Amino acid sequence: MKRVTLRDIAKKAGVSIATVSWAINNNKNVRIPLETRNRIQKIAQELGYKKNALASELVSGETKFIGFITDDVATTPFAGQIIQGAQDEAWKSGKILLIVNTDGKDTVEQAAFNMMEEYRVQGIIYSTWYHHPLSVPDYLLTVPSILVNCFDKKDICPSVVPDEFQGGYDATKLLINAGHKKIAFFNTTSPSPAKTDRLKGYRTALEESKIEFNNSLVFNVTPNQEGGYNFADSLIKSGATAVFCHNDRVAMGLYDALNKRISKSQKICRLLGSIIKK
């Protein structure tokens, strides 16, 4: 189907294209008889005319776009909540997110910003997949910007970051309230606020519950499945009755390793049982 244009409306209404534009956009600075304005708007509706939002925004200098640039958050477990939250808030204000996942490539990041600049985004959300300090890219200083899951070393841009201390505290407290006193913590090897502050939260929760801190129950593992998997034997030898992990991937690696050992133990028990019967 052919897209209806201002020219089509003007032809049917018997007026100029400029008059149609003023009437359609409800321009208050131009005097158009109310009867003419209503007639043009009625004809536009009958013909199924749709406004060219981008053209209108370019004329006014305002758009409904908000940029969302991320290095790898779109592939991480908590990404859905970050993007969903940003999108929900954007929709509440009648805005639309332009999301670009750069895979950590500077060239892609710069191209993404150039594109967003062309679309005159009202602002940019810049997010990273793990919580850490960074030097804000120069281009972010040219538009209203906010950082998510990272923070500015020079404290120029505002940030939204997790409370790592509270996370470590709450996880430990939950296990203590469940009756555990020998609690292991699979921390990360990556220097970050999560590494230091979660450990502080862990130690504070133990101290409040009069449980002595045991450094041998803290394991620094790589923040991936292999990290959790490779330290399963160390966890078993420690005698811990509970453990909390740096992230879901570490936890899944540990779960897989423990599950295999349990399955192996069950097979041995079944074998010993059959031997005893014989």
From TrEMBL:
Pfam families: LacI, Peripla_BP_1
Alphabetical list of InterPro entries matching this protein: HTH_LacI, Lambda_DNA-bd_dom_sf, Peripla_BP/Lac1_sug-bd_dom, Peripla_BP_I
Superkingdom to which the source organism belongs: Bacteria
HTH lacI-type domain location: 4-60
Keyword field: DNA-binding, Repressor, Transcription, Transcription regulation
CDD domains for this protein: HTH_LacI, PBP1_sucrose_transcription_regulator
Keyword Glycoprotein: no
Name under which the protein is recorded: HTH lacI-type domain-containing protein
UniProt lineage: Bacteria, Bacillati, Bacillota, Bacilli, Lactobacillales
